[in-house]
Amino acid sequence: MDKTRAEIAALIAKRLEEEKIDLQSQFSESKEQIGFFYLDDLLPESLVETIHQCFPKPENSVLKKSLKEYKYVAYQMNLYHPLLEEVIYAFQEPNVVKLIQEICELEGIFPDKNLYAGGLSVMKKNNFLSPHLDNSHDKDRDQWRVLNLLFYVTPNWVDSNGGNLELWPQGLKSNPISITSKFNRLVVMSTHQHSWHSVNKVNSNEIRCCVSNYYFSKTPLRTTDTFHVTSFRGRPGQRLRDTLLRFDTTVRMEIRKLFKKGIRENPHKYKQ
Fold first, then answer.
1. Per-residue b/e over 228-263, b at no fewer than 16 CB within 10 Å?
2. Does this model's pTM top 0.90?
3. pLDDT digits over 145-187, tens only?
4. Which of 48, 104, 210, 261 is spaced 20 to 30 Å from 180 by Cα?
5. CATH number of the domain located at residue range(s) 5-258 in this protein
6. Contact (CB, 8 A) for 108 and 174
7. Based on C-alpha coordinates, what's the Rg of the chain?
8. Helices and strands (H, E) in the chain, number of each type
9. Distance CA 141, CA 146 (A)
């Protein structure tokens, strides 16, 4: 099933428009902490199944493994099936951006054609993503990251599989909100100084596949936001890991005071 990004965007926009009032309510009710909404049945099932079939295998992706995370990513999109690039950039089409901006009651947001920290996420058994705040800015440190878009495409994914998104609106001392990485589900969440989130460990032998995008703005989501690097923490009970990850964040923040873009450029972007 070959579709262009414009055709896929039209389908996304149609579903967003159909559920716009409910989605606005979801985001409005949560925005004082971590604003988010999710929408099921985003695209025709047959199309999403095809997208899933086109996903790269873990061995054909970039492994990221440390105390912070254990997952695979893919962002050099010309190396993979063309449909994957089309679906990623469908979320960057003006009609989709406009609707999401209206749902979240924001102004002046725009997508990232470079896919800085975006693209494809592939997670297999025992993969995880520790609680963290996303980097506050784009690759050039000129624009503020304000929204995170996650589209899950693995058929028959259930909560007990793990690999689910966790939001920590009360911080890491309280229980998180868990959002299942359900097939054909779009999650949109705000990114700011307090939007701690994570992915719990995958328990299944199935591969969790996710299409990821970020939206940016010339101004931060909150007036109190300040620049920060991607900042990781340990989960509750992981005291040693938490201490090490906090130290790592402190070191990287000190480096960024001296070097605006860090010592080396982050390779996670699409070199077109």
1. bbebbbbbeebeebbeebeebbeeeeeebeeeeeee
2. yes
3. 999 999 999 999 999 999 999 999 999 989 999 999 999 999 9
4. 104
5. 2.60.120.620
6. no
7. 18
8. 6, 13
9. 13
